[in-house]
Design goal:
Number of helices: 3
Distance between the termini: 18 Å
Number of domains: 1
Largest sheet: none
Strand content: under 5%
Order of helices and strands: HHH
């Protein structure tokens, strides 16, 4: 896997992931599980959708 998630993108994914999990817990909804996806892609510095589209947010 080639890294394709830049630093700003990574921070946004972490914030969104934590917020989604927090809202899921707050509203007692299983939708909070969706927050795992942005946290996982931020942790791996790899987004499969970006790879399929040939995109990257890493500055060169």
């Amino acid at each position: 896997m080639k890294m394709n998630v830049g630093s700003v993108d990574r921070i946004l994914r972490i914030v969104i992931g934590i917020a989604a999990i927090g809202l899921g817990i707050g509203f007692q909804s299983w939708w909070g599980i969706i927050g795992i996806v942005p946290l996982l892609t931020a942790g791996l510095n790899f987004c499969p959708l970006y790879a399929m589209l040939g995109m990257s947010t890493i500055k060169k």
